[in-house]
Specification:
Layout: H1 17-40, H2 51-58, E1 64-72, E2 107-112, H3 121-127, E3 132-137, H4 139-153, E4 161-166, E5 169-174, E6 179-185, E7 191-192, E8 206-208, H5 213-216, E9 224-227, E10 237-242, E11 251-256, H6 259-275, E12 282-286, H7 325-340, E13 345-348, H8 351-355, H9 374-378, H10 394-406
Parallel strand pairs: 3-6, 3-9, 8-10, 9-12, 12-13
Antiparallel strand pairs: 1-2, 4-5, 5-6, 7-8, 10-11
Amino acid sequence: MGKHHQLQLSSVASIPGVVHYLVICIFVFTVIIATINWHRDDKKLPAPASSAAAAAAALGEECNLFEGKWVFDNDSLPLYKGKGCPYMSDQLACEKYGRTDLSYQKWRWQPRHCDLPRFNAMAVLEKLRNKRLVYVGDSLNRGQWVSMVCLVEQVIEPHLKTMTINGSLSSFNAIEYNASIDYYWAPMLVESNSDDPVNHSSPERIVRVESIERHATHWTNSDVLVFDSYLWWLGDKMKVLWGSFGSPDAIVKDVDMPLPYEMALKTWAEWLELHIDRAKTQTYFVSLSPTHYRAEDWGGTKGQNCYSEIEPIENASYWGSNSIVSLMRIVERVISDLQAKGLKISLLNITQLSEYRKDGHPSIYRRQWEPLTKEQLGNPISYADCAHWCLPGVPDTWNQILHSYII
């Protein structure tokens, strides 16, 4: 409760023994009841109401789930078998595609002053009974969705779970719980020329920073929303479209970053403010997921990247050159404004803990969508994927943190 109560009992010292004893008992009983009621009142609890935070608070310490270190854990990890998950993405299935060093699966995030609660699949499913959880964003968020599906599907009988894909929307359904865990492809959150879930590569990225309704219809009335959008915004400029794609009256202008990102997030925030059911919907925004394309950032050889890396970075203050702080500050401001307006929204600040994990990317151990050239085969560094994450792996920790919020 923050401050220790100072019991001033000097005025009671003169009361006869029995009465003195009764007064103290009544006082202590009142404090206990008040404390219990305080904890039962969700409106007075800070977010998240996690068991880890509560345990740390009881010790008079502050629990920050996003500060800590990675600890090798060969006993309790991984939380599921990658080859055993029928919904695993070939983009993230590193073991399937030849990675033999599996130590990346066995690093456990240890927050400072508290423990991250172990993921409880049954508790998550019960919490999602008759509800819908939707991940919205780019391929990093899709990876987190795959992680969540693999975490929960292992406790569900085969005939009681389904997966359906309809364009940009993928839906995993736990039939017995009437629960849906979905993913919707919207890499910029607002509309863009990269909205096709398969064919989204374009030499020139164009965004409609004021248009989000077409996407939003797919996540309206959700109970839990998890958003992200970062990597697709990197660059000095962004082409911004006012009007409709294909319209002769449309105006396209090159706008210096980060203004387009801020405009898009404000459009997203305005939609949430107007349409979210504040009584039921929990909303989260996942901070930027770092890349590891520059080995010189962590003291490695210039020109190298995450290829062949097998251990996390130990420098607690490490921060990669591709993690743009100004974009993170925009997210923080937008979320702070929404919170001030009464929305239940939290920032899952997974950036720093993920910065350390140069070992956790697919590198060359993933499905390649196009045949590799002779030059690429001779130089694996040239096609190493140092942006996405192997599963099981780092995104499981992101979901463990999310789990501590929603349980």
